[in-house]
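[retry 2/3] Retrovirus-related Pol polyprotein from transposon TNT 1-94: previous attempt timed out, resubmitting with same input.
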Amino acid sequence: MEQEKSTQIFVDNQAAISITNNPEGEVWLVYCSTKNQYADIFIKALRKAKFDLLRQKLEVCSSTSRMSVNFYDF
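[retry 2/3] Retrovirus-related Pol polyprotein from transposon TNT 1-94: success.
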């Protein structure tokens, strides 16, 4: 499969961007502030406020706000 355009990788380390060299243009590192790293919700222990903010940005609701489905209703 031919790669049609660069793969974007969002990083919060500007030094990593400045020392990266990809002359073929297959990878494009894009700076993203640490506060906007949505993946942190999956890999870091976060305070409740930060966790709730990232969960909201991912458009994921809390398990207590979802409707329950009873197995025996089917």
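[retry 2/3] Retrovirus-related Pol polyprotein from transposon TNT 1-94: The helical segments are 14-19, 40-43, 48-57.
[retry 2/3] clearing retry counter.
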